[in-house]
Amino acid sequence: MQRTNSKLITVMAGVLISAAAMLSPLQAMATEVVMYKSPNCGCCTDWADSLRKEGFTVVENQREDMDRIKASYGVPEKLSSCHTATVDGYVIEGHVPAADVKRLLDEKPAIVGLTAPGMPMKSPGMQPAGLPPKNYDVLAFDKDGKAVVFSHY
Known about the structure:
Blueprint: H1 2-22, H2 25-28, E1 32-37, H3 42-52, E2 57-62, H4 66-72, E3 84-87, E4 90-94, H5 98-107, E5 113-116, E6 137-141, E7 147-152
Parallel strand pairs: 1-2, 4-5
Antiparallel strand pairs: 1-3, 3-4, 5-6, 6-7
Protein backbone atom coordinates (compact mmCIF):
# COMPACT_ATOMS: atom_id res chain seq x y z
CA MET A 1 0.00 0.00 0.00
CA GLN A 2 2.76 2.45 0.88
CA ARG A 3 4.51 1.75 -2.45
CA THR A 4 1.26 2.53 -4.35
CA ASN A 5 0.87 5.81 -2.47
CA SER A 6 4.47 6.70 -3.26
CA LYS A 7 3.90 6.06 -6.98
CA LEU A 8 0.70 8.09 -6.92
CA ILE A 9 2.47 11.00 -5.24
CA THR A 10 5.27 10.84 -7.82
CA VAL A 11 2.80 10.82 -10.72
CA MET A 12 0.78 13.70 -9.25
CA ALA A 13 3.94 15.75 -8.67
CA GLY A 14 4.89 15.21 -12.31
CA VAL A 15 1.47 16.35 -13.48
CA LEU A 16 1.67 19.52 -11.36
CA ILE A 17 5.17 20.35 -12.58
CA SER A 18 4.07 19.85 -16.21
CA ALA A 19 1.00 22.05 -15.70
CA ALA A 20 3.10 24.80 -14.09
CA ALA A 21 5.55 24.70 -17.00
CA MET A 22 2.71 25.37 -19.44
CA LEU A 23 1.62 28.57 -17.67
CA SER A 24 2.93 31.86 -18.99
CA PRO A 25 5.01 33.90 -16.52
CA LEU A 26 2.05 36.28 -16.09
CA GLN A 27 -0.33 33.43 -15.26
CA ALA A 28 2.14 31.81 -12.89
CA MET A 29 2.59 34.85 -10.68
CA ALA A 30 -0.03 36.45 -8.49
CA THR A 31 -0.42 39.79 -10.25
CA GLU A 32 -1.44 42.35 -7.67
CA VAL A 33 -2.33 45.88 -8.66
CA VAL A 34 -2.28 48.46 -5.87
CA MET A 35 -4.57 51.38 -6.70
CA TYR A 36 -4.89 54.80 -5.04
CA LYS A 37 -8.10 56.71 -5.63
CA SER A 38 -10.29 59.43 -4.23
CA PRO A 39 -12.99 58.08 -1.90
CA ASN A 40 -15.63 59.74 -4.11
CA CYS A 41 -14.61 58.27 -7.47
CA GLY A 42 -16.87 55.50 -8.76
CA CYS A 43 -15.19 55.18 -12.16
CA CYS A 44 -11.98 54.14 -10.40
CA THR A 45 -13.74 51.20 -8.77
CA ASP A 46 -15.24 50.28 -12.16
CA TRP A 47 -11.72 50.28 -13.66
CA ALA A 48 -10.49 48.04 -10.83
CA ASP A 49 -13.39 45.67 -11.53
CA SER A 50 -12.38 45.53 -15.22
CA LEU A 51 -8.89 44.39 -14.17
CA ARG A 52 -10.31 41.83 -11.75
CA LYS A 53 -12.35 40.34 -14.62
CA GLU A 54 -9.03 39.86 -16.46
CA GLY A 55 -7.42 37.95 -13.58
CA PHE A 56 -5.68 40.69 -11.62
CA THR A 57 -5.97 41.14 -7.88
CA VAL A 58 -6.67 44.82 -7.17
CA VAL A 59 -6.16 46.43 -3.77
CA GLU A 60 -8.02 49.75 -3.53
CA ASN A 61 -6.67 52.46 -1.25
CA GLN A 62 -8.83 55.52 -0.73
CA ARG A 63 -6.75 58.67 -0.36
CA GLU A 64 -7.41 62.39 -0.10
CA ASP A 65 -3.86 63.30 -1.23
CA MET A 66 -3.89 62.11 -4.83
CA ASP A 67 -1.62 64.90 -6.10
CA ARG A 68 1.01 63.80 -3.59
CA ILE A 69 0.60 60.13 -4.61
CA LYS A 70 1.04 61.00 -8.29
CA ALA A 71 4.14 63.10 -7.57
CA SER A 72 5.67 60.32 -5.46
CA TYR A 73 5.34 57.90 -8.39
CA GLY A 74 6.66 60.36 -10.98
CA VAL A 75 3.43 61.00 -12.85
CA PRO A 76 3.69 64.35 -14.68
CA GLU A 77 0.65 66.59 -14.22
CA LYS A 78 0.01 66.69 -17.99
CA LEU A 79 -0.26 62.87 -18.00
CA SER A 80 -2.42 62.48 -14.91
CA SER A 81 -5.86 60.97 -14.53
CA CYS A 82 -8.17 60.21 -11.62
CA HIS A 83 -6.40 57.20 -10.07
CA THR A 84 -2.84 55.91 -9.79
CA ALA A 85 -1.87 52.27 -9.52
CA THR A 86 1.30 50.22 -9.32
CA VAL A 87 2.02 46.73 -10.59
CA ASP A 88 5.34 44.91 -10.62
CA GLY A 89 7.32 48.16 -10.30
CA TYR A 90 5.36 50.05 -12.97
CA VAL A 91 2.89 52.92 -12.59
CA ILE A 92 -0.52 52.66 -14.22
CA GLU A 93 -2.21 56.06 -14.39
CA GLY A 94 -5.89 56.21 -15.17
CA HIS A 95 -8.13 54.07 -17.33
CA VAL A 96 -5.51 51.84 -18.97
CA PRO A 97 -7.09 48.62 -20.33
CA ALA A 98 -6.08 45.30 -18.78
CA ALA A 99 -4.69 44.15 -22.15
CA ASP A 100 -2.12 46.96 -22.02
CA VAL A 101 -1.16 46.11 -18.44
CA LYS A 102 -0.66 42.48 -19.50
CA ARG A 103 1.44 43.55 -22.48
CA LEU A 104 3.52 45.82 -20.24
CA LEU A 105 4.22 42.96 -17.83
CA ASP A 106 5.06 40.64 -20.69
CA GLU A 107 7.40 43.03 -22.56
CA LYS A 108 8.90 44.78 -19.49
CA PRO A 109 10.05 47.96 -21.28
CA ALA A 110 12.37 50.43 -19.55
CA ILE A 111 9.68 52.99 -18.69
CA VAL A 112 8.03 54.38 -15.57
CA GLY A 113 4.59 53.26 -16.66
CA LEU A 114 1.45 53.70 -18.72
CA THR A 115 -1.16 56.43 -18.67
CA ALA A 116 -4.52 57.24 -20.17
CA PRO A 117 -4.45 60.99 -19.45
CA GLY A 118 -7.66 62.63 -18.36
CA MET A 119 -10.70 60.44 -18.25
CA PRO A 120 -11.34 59.03 -21.76
CA MET A 121 -15.08 58.47 -22.14
CA LYS A 122 -14.78 55.12 -23.95
CA SER A 123 -12.27 53.50 -21.59
CA PRO A 124 -12.64 50.71 -19.00
CA GLY A 125 -14.43 52.21 -16.01
CA MET A 126 -15.86 55.12 -17.98
CA GLN A 127 -18.33 53.17 -20.11
CA PRO A 128 -20.56 50.14 -19.59
CA ALA A 129 -18.58 47.02 -18.66
CA GLY A 130 -17.56 44.78 -21.53
CA LEU A 131 -17.45 47.39 -24.27
CA PRO A 132 -14.12 47.69 -26.08
CA PRO A 133 -11.92 50.75 -25.52
CA LYS A 134 -12.36 53.37 -28.24
CA ASN A 135 -11.12 56.80 -29.38
CA TYR A 136 -8.09 57.35 -27.16
CA ASP A 137 -4.40 56.55 -26.71
CA VAL A 138 -2.55 54.83 -23.91
CA LEU A 139 0.87 56.39 -23.49
CA ALA A 140 4.11 54.96 -22.15
CA PHE A 141 6.11 57.51 -20.15
CA ASP A 142 9.67 57.66 -18.87
CA LYS A 143 11.32 59.26 -15.83
CA ASP A 144 11.69 62.57 -17.70
CA GLY A 145 7.96 62.72 -18.49
CA LYS A 146 8.49 61.96 -22.17
CA ALA A 147 5.51 60.02 -23.53
CA VAL A 148 4.94 57.90 -26.62
CA VAL A 149 1.88 56.02 -27.83
CA PHE A 150 1.78 52.49 -26.42
CA SER A 151 -1.67 51.58 -27.78
CA HIS A 152 -4.24 53.36 -29.89
CA TYR A 153 -7.94 52.66 -29.57
